[in-house]
Amino acid sequence: MNAQVGYTNPVVCGADVCHLNLHKTFAIPHGGGGPGVGPIGVAAHLVPFLPKHNLVKTGGEKGIEAVSAAPFGSALILTISYGYIKMMGGKGLTQATAIAMLSANYLKACLKEHYPILYTGKNDTVAHEMILDCNPFKATAGIDAIDIAKRLMDYGFHAPTVAFPVVGTLMVEPTESEPLAELDRFVDAMISIRREIKEIEDGTASKENNVVKNAPHTLKMVSSTQWDFPYSREKAAFALKWVEESKYFTPVARIDNAFGDRNLVCTCEPIESYM
After folding, report:
1. Quick check: 191 and 152 in contact, CB under 8 A?
2. Strands 117-118 and 169-172, bridge-based pairing
3. CATH annotation of 130-261
């Protein structure tokens, strides 16, 4: 909806059903597993199948009973979106949509010579987001999308969405809230990382031991007496001039995401200690 509000809507586009998740477009924080809250709108022919609720009379005659959902979602979360909509007004919401699309297309124009971009429209534009295809780098340099995501931390950026909705990609959504200076910093970081990948492709950097594969670099790593990497500490931590002026160091270095997901470790006290 970040590319639709004020200009079009799912009904005009011919949708039968739409879960209007309120994150981002309507000011709800997104991350940490949710919150996935918002109304589900359906066309007239699907109204009989809307879910019922055993406490509140709602839903259609052919709908199933709710399993665990509250009938009207989270009142606390919905209040945030209501306040945002009231304060922005129709004109403000429409302007937010325009700026979100302008921001995305600005990034696209800056990065298209450096990264393949999937799914552009007939005018070679994107909507409020774009998908950078990192799959070719796997073949040319042994670099995955997750490696670029980790390296972005060294530049002070939380990575965009990794491997969704297309495997091996980064989905970038600048929204309407990022200033031009921040967009430019992101562009600089992505172009700098592309240069680092090219060093691997050209053979001037090792395919197994390089600044992208080893990212992120912590303060402890950079300040340690021992430095066993084939590139400089400066390249690891301060690849661009503006990074020096406002450096963020990650608290931990590279971790094995998949291993961590499959091997959970409980750090809480045993049940007996609460007796």
Report:
1. no
2. unpaired
3. 3.90.1150
Token look-up 């999308």 returns 145
Token readout for 56 is 């509140």
**What tens digit of pLDDT does each residue of 254-263 get?**
988 888 889 8
Q: Which of 103, 107, 210 is nearest to 154 (CA)?
A: 210
Q: Which amino acid is at 191?
A: I
**CA 108 to CA 161: how far, in whole Å?**
16
**Neighbouring C-alpha atoms within 13 Å toward the C-beta of 147:** 20
Look up tokens 């301060």; give the residue: 238
Q: Please, where in the chain does CATH 3.90.1150 lie?
A: 130-261
Q: For the beta carbon of residue 212, count every other beta carbon within 10 angstroms.
A: 21
Question: pTM for the complete prediction?
Answer: 0.87
Picking from 254, 240, 130, the residue whose alpha carbon sits closest to that of residue 193 is: 240
pLDDT, mean over the chain: 92
